[in-house]
Design a protein that fits this description.
30% strand; Rieske Iron-sulfur Protein; elongated; alpha+beta; 175 residues
């Protein structure tokens, strides 16, 4: 039993290793004709168009919705307020947290307690005179509700207030 003359056994090993990828990634060139480039392009264009039209439809429906009217809700009496303090309440719904601030100088403002970044609860820190979101260190100006530090992208939704005698009512939400 002798070696075959003219054949190098290492080249067979190399060839066997070189063909191993074919068994691990079986791709048949005749399957390449199942989807043409033109068909793929048509699919991509039609899918993009459908997504655009559906987004446009949702935007139009959002514009057509009438603003919700909320029933007035008694928040507090003027005698119950302390300057530089906050009163927490639920408005407009029972699960919507809000806060009434009696700022130094006698100004009353109310905001939704939901942070505009990721909807964490915002609290009033009287000692620092700021509205603070502890989730990502968001800070809002208590007089305007505008973000002054951290990741929040826009101001807090402001709650409209109405005073009747010594009672303070929440009457709506500014978006």
């Amino acid at each position: 039993m002798g070696a075959v003359i003219g054949r190098d056994p290492r080249s067979q090993e190399t060839r066997a290793r070189g063909d191993r990828w074919r068994s691990e990634f079986p791709y048949h060139w005749d399957a390449d004709d199942l989807v043409s480039r033109r068909e793929l392009l048509f699919f991509a264009v039609y899918t993009s168009g459908a997504l655009f039209v559906s987004t446009l439809l949702l935007a139009v429906l959002g514009l057509l919705q009438r603003p919700r009217r909320h029933a007035p809700k008694l928040i507090a009496r003027v005698g119950d307020l302390q300057e530089g303090r906050a009163i927490y309440f639920n408005y407009p719904g029972p699960d919507d947290q809000a806060m009434l601030l009696y700022l130094p100088g006698g100004t009353l403002v109310a905001y939704s307690q939901r942070c505009t970044h990721l909807s964490c609860a915002v609290y009033y820190q009287a000692d620092r005179r700021r509205l603070y979101c502890p989730c990502h260190d968001g800070v809002f100006d208590p007089a305007t509700g505008e973000p002054v530090a951290g990741p929040p992208p826009r101001r807090l939704p402001r709650i409209k207030l109405r005073r009747r005698g010594d009672a303070i009512y929440a009457v709506g939400v500014e978006v």
